[in-house]
Structure formats: C-alpha cells, structure tokens
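S2.1 Query sequence (YqzH family protein)
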Amino acid sequence: MNKQFIKVHMQNVIHTYTDQHFGLPLTEKEEQELLNKIILKIDESGIEQFQDVIHDVIYTFFTDQEDE
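Output structure tokens follow.
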C-alpha cells in the first residue's frame, strides 16, 4: 500500500482529533510507528477496513491506550 496515500488519510484523521491545520503534530518516529501499525493492521483485517483501521490506530495513540 502506498505510504503517502496513508499519510494523507492519517493527516485527515489527526485533524479531526487535534484541529491542527498545519500538518501532523508528531515526531518522525511517532509518524513512522503509526504508519507501520496501520499497514500491519490493514494487512491483518483487509483493505475494506482501511478507514476504521486508521481511526482506531490514531485514536489509540491520542488516548494513550495499549494496543489490543
């Protein structure tokens, strides 16, 4: 899956949680970790769950919850 495509969707979801218009409020390491988690979960659950996976991973990150 195209990482840039996923990053665009990550930015859109992060915007809903942070109301930031200037990009991801993340370090490069955090962004890469989120990207890797999203790709892994999409591989596990299938592309049809794409949006749900992104929302779940981002929500978990911002609420500081443990992964399932």
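The helical segments are 3-18, 28-45, 50-62. Residues 28-45 form the longest helix (18 residues).
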